[in-house]
Amino acid sequence: MTAVETQPERTALAWQRTGLGVLAVAALLGHRALGAGRPALLVAAGLTALLGLGVLGGLAPARYRQVRDRVAGGRAVTTPAPARAVTAVVVLTALAAAVAVLVPG
Question: What are the boundaries of each domain within the chain?
Fold first, then answer.
């Protein structure tokens, strides 16, 4: 098996790890919201969880199929739109986490 044959699987695993990381941050936000009695933070945790599920259930499988098809067709794999979308998710997650840590409850 060559590196090209495993590229779609490695890409899928990376996107899944990103989605799981976002979900983990959402769980931590939810835990902090419940412990500190901050309902607004609970809303942020829920929205962050939805973003994580969007990466896991939507972006990751779509990107896997796209990379698999492009590798099989011998075309370039890079497409900026999915990468921009997941970057936005990660940045929004980081902002939510920063607010949870920095804003006193």
Answer: 3-102
